[in-house]
Write a structure and sequence with these properties.
single chain; mainly alpha; globular; binds phenylalanine
Length: 451
């Protein structure tokens, strides 16, 4: 391979880019609605406890695998043990599946920015606005192409000049906007009840489902089990402290999820007169309920615009990480140049994304086991392949290359303070939990259990 592997320039660049991947639609839209659905404060507590233990351990493992081998997922697993190359393949399928449909949703977000800029805040609050938009054949496809086009352009510029540069200014702005909107929302009359529901743990709401749902969310939110953190780890210089970088990414990711809840739950509570049901509407929350909330607030159109700009940044830095992971996989496997690969990935994603978009309208009659096209991709990646990859990664690190191999990589820059916890979790605790998530999410997805 002639081209030198590019790198993040320093710790901040790495942390912000990885946080850019982790902070996405999952934090802003999925986290608040899961928190509301699974009992508010208790979910938050369980989530945080899992993030600092389980999430931390898995992220350390993935970043270290990437940095140790200097390769993306397929090459990395194979380099460490020939028999485990297939785990890399499996992990690599996930971003290929997610990128197209994630960009369809990214396109919706982009559309909503234009809606707020062009003064249609009131129209957007109408019940049929969102449904009318996503079911039309052409318009959402256009927004999808714009979103994935921007993603491809940034990835084309490479790790340092594209990804790092964009993350370094988008992520701080995102954090500031989240704080501003959250504070603003808390001043709405009735918001305090929502705040209490969100932060005060009520132990009577605790159940095994709370833990499994929190765990499933954690994976998705931290961009684990899809080769992303391996790829980003492979761009990390050897003199950067791995343990503290992972702590910072985790803090950023969980912090934004927490603030997103703070931004959405009290405001929706105030708007709905304290009915938590309104929060559990899935996709409708962000695109139907929130526009109504913005419409009812003083200054709502401005807050709405800021909100969707923020969501756009979050979604874009995530789609960049998805595309970069796919690009780097192809780059490791072939001799093609970056431009050509970006072109191929762009074309492939367009081909897969258009059906996902049409599945909401023209092709809405196509259903596989009750899922529309977008739903099938989402289910296959999040509920099936990701838990399997996570499980295999734990087995791989715990029993094949052994935790010591990862610990050594982390200790290149000083003591790994969480060494014991790392070993115990990766060998014993995580595998059991992950099998639980796998069973739970498959049964839930297929409608066998209702939660
Ligand atoms: N972690 C992202 C989020 O919370 C989701 C994501 C998934 C990003 C897959 C990239 C890849 O939204």
């Amino acid at each position: 391979m002639s081209e030198k592997r590019s790198n993040f320039t320093g710790k901040i660049g790495f942390v912000l880019a990885a946080a850019g991947s982790a902070v996405g639609l999952g934090n802003i839209w999925r986290f608040p609605y899961l928190a509301a659905k699974y009992g508010g404060g208790i979910f938050l507590l369980v989530y945080i406890a899992l993030a600092v233990t389980f999430g931390f351990v898995l992220m350390c493992a993935e970043v270290a695998i990437g940095r140790k081998t200097g390769l993306s997922a397929i090459g990395a697993y194979k380099a460490l043990d020939k028999r485990f190359g297939f785990v890399g393949w499996l992990a690599s399928i996930v971003p290929m599946i997610i990128l197209p449909y994630y960009s369809v949703i990214g396109g919706w977000v982009t559309k909503y920015i234009s809606v707020y800029i062009s003064g249609q805040a009131h129209a957007a609050a109408d019940d049929s606005f969102f449904g009318g938009f996503i079911s039309s054949p052409i318009e959402p496809v256009g927004w999808f192409l714009l979103f994935i086009g921007i993603t491809a352009l940034i990835v084309l510029f490479g790790v340092e000049k594209g990804i790092e540069r964009v993350s370094k200014w988008m992520m701080p702005i995102l954090a500031i906007l989240t704080v501003i909107i959250a504070i603003y929302g808390l001043f709405m009359p009735g918001a305090i009840d929502g705040l209490i529901y969100y932060i005060k743990p009520d132990f009577s709401h605790f159940s095994a489902t709370t833990v499994l749902a929190a765990m499933g969310q954690l994976f998705y939110s931290m961009s684990l089990a899809m080769g992303i953190m391996i790829t980003y780890g492979s761009y990390m210089k050897k003199d950067i402290k791995l343990e503290s970088s992972v702590r910072q990414i985790e803090l950023f990711d969980t912090g934004i999820a927490f603030l997103a809840g703070l931004m959405i739950i009290p405001a929706v509570f105030a708007f709905s007169g304290g009915d938590p049901e309104v929060l559990s509407k899935g996709a409708g929350l962000m695109f139907i309920t929130l526009p109504k909330v913005f419409d009812s607030m003083t200054g709502g159109p401005v807050i709405g615009l800021l909100f969707f700009v923020m969501v756009f940044f979050a979604a874009l830095t995530s789609s960049i990480s998805l595309m970069e992971t796919v690009v780097s996989i192809i780059k490791d496997k072939t001799k093609l140049g970056r431009k050509t690969i970006c072109g191929i990935v762009f074309a492939g994603s367009v081909a897969l994304g258009i059906p996902s978009s049409l599945g909401n309208g023209l092709w809405s009659h196509i259903k596989i086991a009750n899922f529309d096209i977008l739903g099938v991709f989402d289910f296959a990646s999040n509920s099936v392949i990701m838990p399997i990859v996570a499980l295999l990664t734990c087995i791989f690190v715990g029993y094949v290359i052994k935790p010591q191999a990862i610990i050594e990589e982390i200790e290149l820059t000083g003591k790994f303070t969480a060494k014991k916890m790392f070993t115990v979790i990766i060998k014993y605790v995580a595998p059991i939990f992950i099998v639980g998530i796998l069973i739970f999410s498959v049964l839930e997805g297929l409608g066998v259990i209702k939660v």
